[in-house]
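thread: overnight batch results

M.L. [08:02]
morning all. the overnight job finished for the chain we discussed friday. pasting input first so we're all looking at the same thing
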Amino acid sequence: MKIITRRVFILITILFFGGCAGHQQIAVPPTQPSENTAVIALLSKAGDQSAAGQMDKASENLERALRIEPHNPLLWHELARIRLEQGQYRQAENMAAKSNMLAGTNRYLKAENWRIIGEARNRLGDLHGAREAFGKAESSP
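M.L. [08:03]
and the structure it wrote out:
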């Protein structure tokens, strides 16, 4: 299970930084979501906990990572995903929107955030808002 989680983590990281390619130069290697080893460790631990269904523990570790790097869009995205799983739909929507504000030109991450927003709105019964969000997700990548 840990190998699968690590592969998913690496894939998300590569896709995250792949969306940053273009006119900007990236200061971190494309296989790391952060230069801070504590953030990387917390994100990895949260990924393992999420895969094991330990959403409360995963969210605690992501919150710790966000105290270190509050402007990291991947951390906000992952916490939004956890909140969606926990049934905290408004928080999931707000955190995905925060991730979008910080995501810059990363269209892949923005599309994934719009999918979280769409699903949160759908579960809240806002079908029009959900369709709008899913439409933005499709036009992002």
